[in-house]
UniProtKB/TrEMBL annotation:
GO cellular component: mitochondrion
Organism per entry: Photinus pyralis
Protein's name according to its UniProt entry: Methyltransferase type 11 domain-containing protein
Entry keyword set: Methyltransferase, S-adenosyl-L-methionine, Transferase, Ubiquinone biosynthesis
GO process annotations (BP): methylation
Lineage: Eukaryota, Metazoa, Ecdysozoa, Arthropoda, Hexapoda
Length: 265
């Protein structure tokens, strides 16, 4: 986020005490985490990133190193750790990192599996190139000042062959009506101003940027939130919320593609 985003910073800082209230202002965040965490786990296993002998156990992602970008108070970071990942959570807001750290310090499992840092992804990428098997960004892309640099920085932190998962709001008329108007302004189940619709990307645009940074899209799934059941659920289109899963091309894959292009010419 840029320095000009003072209002957004104030909004997020103000939520620190209520970050873990599952029925509070962040109900959609909690419910979407419950939906996407098993999806992320299954794709990591399917991609062969997790150890084969761990895949059927209680902590199937043992030994997988993950980075959560924009971890806030740690909702998704904790879920990843409980599935076995060794997770680094970073966020630009110190008050939220403090909430996440407080929780981790009182849980023996989290204490060993999780580390948190107040840092932007743009800064983190400069010193942590090709460090992680998995990078996850859950409702953070739409807050970034520059989406290109944000995605590029996430990609930099990923090992070749690693997986990136980005959850965000699509930039469509439907998302403005169904998320900004209905859920932020009318039902108020999302804090007003939480999603800056002008900074959102459609799934296609997101794929283009990923591609530009050597990240090949494998799948995109749409989802939405049911206000009455307080649950998130998968939908067929990616016009509201969506999660995109991409893989960083390994060097051999790039060489293969270049050779194929040369042979065509
Ligand atoms: C909606 S919260 C997401 C919470 C979290 N992912 C979860 O699942 O609980 C978005 C977070 O992204 C953080 N953020 C925004 N831009 C960032 C950046 N460039 N680098 C790191 N964190 C950033 C914000 O401070 C905010 O806490």
């Amino acid at each position: 986020m840029s320095g000009s985003d003072d209002e957004k910073l104030r909004l997020l800082k103000g939520l620190n005490e209520r970050w873990w209230d599952e029925d509070g202002n962040l109900v959609t965040l909690h419910s979407s985490c419950k939906l996407i965490a098993p999806y992320i786990r299954d794709e990591i296993i399917h991609a062969g990133i997790a150890r084969a002998d761990a895949a059927s156990g209680l902590t199937p992602l043992d030994d997988v190193t993950a980075l959560e970008v924009g971890c806030g108070g740690g909702i998704l970071t904790e879920r990843l750790a409980k599935m076995g990942c060794t997770v680094t959570g970073i966020d630009v807001i110190g008050e939220l990192i403090a909430v996440a750290k407080r929780r981790a310090s009182s849980d023996p499992l989290l204490k060993t599996k999780v580390s948190y840092k107040k840092e932007s992804i743009e800064h983190h990428a400069a010193n942590n190139a090709e460090k992680y098997d998995v990078v996850v960004s859950h409702f953070c892309l739409e807050q970034a000042e520059d989406q290109q640099t944000f995605i590029e920085s996430c990609g930099k932190c990923l090992k070749p062959g690693g997986a990136i998962f980005i959850t965000t709001v699509s930039k469509t008329i439907l998302s403005w009506l169904g998320i900004v108007l209905l859920y932020e302004k009318l039902f108020k189940c999302i804090p007003v101003g939480m999603h800056d619709w002008n900074r959102c990307l459609t799934a296609d645009k997101c794929h283009q940027i990923l591609q530009r940074h050597n990240l090949k899209t494998i799948a995109t799934r749409g989802f939405y939130y049911n206000y009455f059941s307080k649950r998130s659920f998968w939908i067929r289109c990616a016009s509201l919320f969506y999660i995109t899963y991409a893989k960083k091309k390994a060097i051999e894959e790039n060489v293969k593609e270049i050779t194929k292009d040369c042979l065509k010419k």
